[in-house]
Design a protein that fits this description.
Radius of gyration: 15 Å
Number of strands: 10
Strand order of the largest sheet: 6-7-8-9-4-3-10
Helix content: 10-25%
Largest sheet: 7 strands, mixed
């Protein structure tokens, strides 16, 4: 995975961001909510601590109740609708950047597939990637939550 600063933004350019390293994880998510939110079979997400995101512009948000039992908030451009990132109750201080919103999406590579149980029959994934039926509790998320609680 890259140790470089990554940049990205929405389709119309009204919202831009910079991500400082390190990246915690990169996963392909096939949950039903991601399918509905993106209109695709899955989305690729880049996990970072929220303090690593420098944002210019003000995203619009939409919050719903996720499969994990917590709230999930999607942040997107109110002008062009470009998806930017997701935050929520379960990951707490960890946010998930939409890899497709990066200026160079090839700068990251998926490490796993999550919510494989919800994948559309026609969607395809790299068979060499570890695959999970739900969202595994990630050490990175647990560590970020513990660090925030101690502050």
């Amino acid at each position: 995975m890259t140790e470089d600063v990554l940049e990205g933004g929405c389709l119309c350019g009204a919202i831009r961001y910079r991500l400082s390293p390190p990246i915690l994880f990169v996963s392909q998510c096939a949950c039903k909510d991601c399918q509905k939110a993106t209109g695709t079979g899955h989305t690729t997400i880049v996990g970072i601590h929220r303090d690593q995101l420098a944002l210019t512009g003000s995203p619009t948000t939409y919050t719903n109740h996720g499969d994990t039992g917590g709230d999930v908030t999607r942040h997107f451009c109110g002008t062009c609708g470009g998806r930017l990132y997701t935050s929520g109750t379960l990951p707490g201080p960890v946010i998930m950047i939409q890899a497709g919103s990066l200026d160079d999406p090839s700068a990251v590579s998926p490490q796993s597939v999550i919510y494989r149980k919800d994948a559309a029959a026609w969607d395809r994934f790299d068979p060499d990637l570890p695959s999970h039926d739900g969202m595994p509790v990630r050490q990175e998320i647990a560590a970020a939550k513990a660090a925030e609680a101690s502050n």
